[in-house]
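Thread: quick sanity check before group meeting

JM: Hey all, I'm pulling together slides for Thursday and realized we never actually wrote out the predicted structure for the chain we discussed last week. Dropping the sequence here so it's in one place. If anyone has concerns about the input, flag it before I start.
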Amino acid sequence: MTHQGPLSRDAMAYVLAGGRGSRLKELTDIRAKPAVYFGGKTRIIDFALSNALNSGIRRMGVATQYKAHSLIRHLNRGWNFLRTERNESFDILPASQRMSDAWYEGTADAVFQNIDIIEDYDPQYMVILAGDHIYKMDYEIMLQQHVNSGADVTIGCLTVPRMEATGFGVMHVDKTDRITDFVEKPADPPGIPGDEGNALASMGIYVFNTAFLMEELRRDAETPGSKRDFGGDIIPYIVKHGHAQAHRFDSSCVKSDSESIAYWKDVGTVDAYWQANVDLTSTVPELDLYDRDWPIWTHAETLPPAKFVHNEEGRRGFAVQSLVSGDCIISGTEMSNSLCFSGVRTNSYSQLDKAVILPGCEIGRHARLKNVVLDRGVTIPEGMVVGEDPELDARRFRRTENGIVLITQKMIDAIDG
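JM (edit): ok, ran it. Output follows.
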């Protein structure tokens, strides 16, 4: 059966944004991983929400849990344009012990506890999304496949080299991409039929008919010993007792003319976060943020333009291969392969190389920073050098095995003198 017209108008996107994000270390001390800044203007969660909006979905819910304040504030500021009178909705759903005395116990429970709110909107389809990945995807294509295949659940899958799939939930599929087995983080992942060098890894994206999902959530809630988790409980049960279908990201990935690969990134470690941001400074980056056909929506502040000042030898304000946001003043600073969020101030004779600088930071005179991530509002003292002495960096700051240095204001304050 082929459905006429967009299915997205009958769908609700439900974003799971409650994760701790502990591998991002101090970047998630005060904010949830989906609220972490990315790409100069946006937050990580803006990608999943923008995909939903650009796909035509006009009903959205976001389940929040840990350290949710900055996330909720961002959503209230940046995503408050959806209007009930246009049959649109945007709900922020903090864990509030609505169905029991417990917080959200798992990803499935984060939906189950809000069943009454979802049923009130009466969407025909549910698109369940992780709120912490960077990618561009047209969910309408996935919805069409879901309906045409008659599946109980359709799971978004990445094609990855087989032995790189050990950290994912991996699908064992037949020749029609029907899922025959689902294994969580296998030591020896199953290959794809006819393409044994690759495996299909779960993206944490699921499409369900709403009525079916509600039945499954209620069944799972009454199952002793369940962890109330999609990947751990709901999906394996449907694979065994129903029809689970794999949807390949390659077929719904949104690419502009300049993008050559199906871009998907989990920026869940300091190294991956730094790398994905620095990659954006390439002449032709793998992720095109300038694609007007698929904009990434966010809270857009009203800011003055970026400014570059001073033009004398050794004290020239310039940036090459870099992204510089509004309200930045690059004063007598050499900047290369770096990314500045809004409101950054740099002072004379300083040098920045491969630096990811979050909003509101100030760089003192004569500072030299290389391979760093500065958390929001950090003030770098005059003359500080980071990225040249690994032992000193590791003593003072968070230094990864790959030599990326994460700096917070607390770390700066702890340095004697």
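AS: nice. The CA atoms of residues 98 and 113 lie 6 Å apart. The chain has a mean pLDDT of 95.
JM: adding both to the slides.
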